[in-house]
Amino acid sequence: MTPPAQPRDRLRVAVQKSGRLGDPARELLASCGLTWRESRDRLFLYGESLPIDILLVRDDDIPGLIADGVCDLGVVGRNVLVEHHLERGAAGRPASLREWRQLGWGACRLDVAIPEGDEWTGPAQLAGLRIATSYPQTLGRWLRENGVEAHPVVLNGSVEIAPRLGQADVVCDLVSTGGTLRANGLVPVTTILESEAVIAGPDHHLEDGRQEIADLLLRRLDGAVQLRESRLLMLRAGRGSLDGVLPLLPAGHEPTVLQVDGLEEVSVQILVHGPVSWSRLEDLKRAGAHNLMVLPVEGMLA
Ligand SMILES: Nc1ncnc2c1ncn2[C@@H]1O[C@H](COP(=O)(O)OP(=O)(O)OP(=O)(O)O)[C@@H](O)[C@H]1O
Ligand SMILES: O=P(O)(O)OC[C@H]1O[C@H](OP(=O)(O)OP(=O)(O)O)[C@H](O)[C@@H]1O
Ligand SMILES: [Mg+2]
């Protein structure tokens, strides 16, 4: 039984110490105006600009630290959160965490992959096979949902090599480019979880004034995430081509159309969500636009 957490009036956020999500998570928090003083062991960052401290840990430990009340929030892959949630469930403990925000980066999939050249006929073909994975609970849930009985072989890393070593027949592991699978003669056949980086937190309100600090951080995070994805698209077009150009603009805010002094031309500006592809710019140019420009947005205040 975990002893109750000590009262705290500062928010504590768990972030991966090293690894894929550590740097982007710290950059995101810094873009929310957070500054820190680093402890000598570099495991604790004391928040200077706001009462928000950062604990640097292994990503697998993040859900447990939040569940135990040692940390309030954490930046972690959904894959780790789901595995923790199912582990707790299997041990008969109630769910205690939820996704507070999805961050739109750190995307990867948890896929089942089989040896190249083998035919894939569906989940039933996995019956009785040994499946190497670091995610036994998530795999187990998917197998149950598909009515398949197989044998998970739990490995903490280098899962893709297991079939070559004779430890397993197939694998269930994280995939983004697919390069690691290909290098090991495996092909992905089905996705059992789509993942991305998320802000994880408890499924209840925080106490001792920490909910107010968390709300402030989340408001800034929402703004920072939106800003990161925003682009300003600017172009010029002849009045006559406007009807062809406007329907081709990417999704975004209401465009601003301004008459250019002394010319039969307009200048169009639109704030768009997400990158603008080259093919979109080419389509706009074909429709009569010119002087097209896509600019990052540094700040925004409605
Ligand atoms: N190939 C990938 N592409 C994109 N995201 C990935 C990829 N592999 C993992 N991730 C995401 O990044 C998270 C962290 O991955 P990383 O490899 O750094 O973890 P780790 O080796 O378990 O680190 P730690 O030392 O903290 O335990 C994963 O849980 C997943 O959400
Ligand atoms: O589809 P890909 O782009 O090849 O990425 C997939 C690989 O990335 C992760 O491992 P990572 O490189 O983090 O090494 P690890 O085995 O130490 O976790 C994951 O466990 C896969 O092995
Ligand atoms: Mg880990």
Task: Describe the structure concisely.
By secondary structure, the protein is α+β, with helices and mostly antiparallel strands.
Would you kindly provide a written description of the structure presented here, covering whatever features stand out?
The protein is an alpha+beta fold and 302 residues long. The protein folds into 3 domains: 11-105 and 197-208, Periplasmic binding protein-like II (D-Maltodextrin-Binding Protein, domain 2); 108-195, D-Maltodextrin-Binding Protein, domain 2, CATH 3.40.190.10; 230-296, Alpha-Beta Plaits (2-Layer Sandwich). It has helices at 22-30, 62-67, 78-90, 136-145, 179-183, 210-229, 242-245, 278-286; strands at 11-16, 36-38, 44-47, 52-57, 73-77, 97-102, 108-115, 130-133, 151-154, 170-175, 186-195, 197-202, 230-238, 256-259, 265-273, 289-296. The strands form 3 sheets. A 7-stranded mixed sheet has the order 2-3-4-1-5-12-6, sandwiched between helices. Strands 9-8-10-7-11 form a 5-stranded mixed sheet. A 4-stranded antiparallel sheet has the order 14-15-13-16. Helix 3 (78-90) crosses helix 4 (136-145). The radius of gyration is 24 Å and the shape is flat. The chain binds adenosine-5'-triphosphate, 1-O-pyrophosphono-5-O-phosphono-alpha-D-ribofuranose (PRP) and magnesium ion. Residues 157-158, 160, 173-180 line the site of 1-O-pyrophosphono-5-O-phosphono-alpha-D-ribofuranose.
